[in-house]
Design a protein that fits this description.
mainly beta
Length: about 450
């Protein structure tokens, strides 16, 4: 029944797309996508029942406490089919004055499976901007991070968006940001654009924590993102660097930039024995190289760094266990003066992207691979630092102007392979990031995808 509804929505969107146009200063644009994915070796049962609710928040599934750890590992695997409808709409109002000054206001929203694509992130974009040809542009408000949006731009066409743009130490969205983009600089060997973004947000406070004998304090997050784009006849090359301070740590590259909630980690008789402000950075160099109009090489190199952040127990007195609303990052369990706490350890990791695309009329054929490497850390606990993963995809795309001029269909055959069973590589936000194939119980798995994309 749901599939019929989604197909009807796709057909309805084609009618809307036919009408999408410029209405004076107002423009509407976006896309509707419906995708059906099938994956095998997916964790489907937990001792013949559904996943325990107390596993929420421990995406690495390694905590040894009651209700955590092995109780959260799948005990059976199977094949799972997942529909994924998505709608994104951008509304923009722009005006250019006689002196060439331009002003604009932009809002973008994305809905997946009937709700926000990213929980708590209602708007992908909500900003105002001003530009002048010889000076560049300024934008203020909610904006997409270049680390996520540009990684997605390179990896989505070869079917590896989840594997590349949604892993690593980058962020996806800046709720409050000021961005300056330079005018295009013309060089003898190509064109160059430079950009800097300063982002901040609110402290993410939660209630008093009885287990740590103190309030769960938080910091105001701050971020500097630098971006450079170079292009010439045969190449598009981009460099992105993010350096954050005080944000909640993760290895989900689509994560919104919000304040950490897990400080301090241990207070005994009013003394703070362990406290650290989370720091996180990522450097990404990626690009496309056209050998000729029919063949294109896509490549990427990424270095991620996390300072590590302590875990803070959100105690549930009804059930008698920790719910961990702020999971920390690369932590381990330790004891000090009779109290248990979970300090974080710093870590760094290198990842790689490689892909090839061939264009033949209305058809495009792709092959790509992402390698998530081992991490370097002093953490005495296994948090996935000794694991690695290779994710591959063979894709085929076709524009179908016979049906509608901006409609395309695609299919992909993927393969996920981990170095060994255990916690996933640290660049992955969870052990089951890729279609539910869980590194705790499945060393490898295959995926198959069919989809349709309509842009307007």
């Amino acid at each position: 029944m749901k599939r019929k509804l989604y197909i009807a929505l796709l057909l309805g969107s084609m009618s809307v797309a036919a009408q999408a146009a410029q209405f004076g200063p107002l423009s509407l644009s976006g896309f509707f996508k419906y995708e059906e994915g099938v994956a095998n070796n997916v964790g489907t049962t937990y001792n013949n029942h559904s996943m325990p609710t107390q596993c929420y928040g421990d995406s690495r599934e390694i905590l040894p406490n009651k209700g955590q750890g092995k109780d959260c590992w799948p005990t059976g695997v199977g094949t799972v089919t997942t529909p994924s409808p998505m709608l994104q709409v951008t509304a923009a109002v722009r005006h250019e004055f006689d002196n060439a000054v331009k002003i604009e206001g932009v809002v973008t929203r994305r809905i997946r499976n009937g709700s926000e694509d990213v929980v708590g992130q209602n708007w992908y974009e909500k900003y105002v901007g001003i530009s002048y040809p010889s000076l560049g542009s300024l934008k203020l408000g909610t904006q997409m991070a270049r680390a996520w949006s540009r990684q997605d731009g390179f990896s989505y066409p070869i079917g590896l968006s989840t594997a590349w743009s949604e892993t690593g130490a980058g962020f996806g969205f800046f709720p409050d940001a000021l961005r300056y983009t330079s005018r295009m600089l013309y060089l003898p060997f190509g064109k160059l654009t430079l950009e800097a973004t300063y982002a901040t947000g609110h402290a993410n406070n939660i209630a008093y924590d009885p287990v740590s004998n103190g309030p769960n304090q938080s910091t105001v997050p701050r971020m500097l993102e630098l971006f450079a784009q170079f292009s010439n006849h045969n190449n598009l090359i981009e460099f992105t660097y993010e350096n954050s301070h005080g944000a909640g740590q993760s290895s989900w590259g689509k994560n919104a930039f919000v304040g950490a909630t897990n400080l301090p980690a241990l207070i005994v008789n009013g003394t703070d024995y362990y406290s650290s402000t989370p720091r996180q950075s990522v450097a990404i160099l990626e690009g496309d190289h056209w050998f000729n109009p029919l063949w294109m090489l896509t490549w990427g190199v990424r270095h991620s760094y996390w300072s590590g952040s302590a875990i803070q127990c959100g105690y549930d007195p009804v059930h008698g266990y920790c719910t961990y609303p702020s999971g920390g990052f690369n932590y381990t369990q330790m004891t000090y003066k009779g109290q248990t706490y979970w300090p974080g350890y710093s870590a760094s990791e290198n990842d790689f992207l490689l892909g090839l695309s061939h264009y033949h009329g209305l058809w495009t054929y792709t092959a790509g691979m992402v390698y998530l490497g081992r991490a370097r850390t002093d953490n005495p606990s296994n948090w996935g630092q000794d694991n690695w993963a290779v994710i591959t995809n063979l894709g085929i795309y076709r524009k179908v102007p016979e049906i509608y001029r901006t409609l395309s269909v695609y299919g992909g055959l993927g393969y996920v392979h981990f170095g060994h069973l255990g916690p996933a590589p640290m660049s992955m936000p969870s052990n089951s990031q890729f279609s539910g194939i869980n590194s705790m119980v499945s060393r490898s798995g295959e995926t198959f995808t069919l989809g349709a994309l309509l842009t307007f």
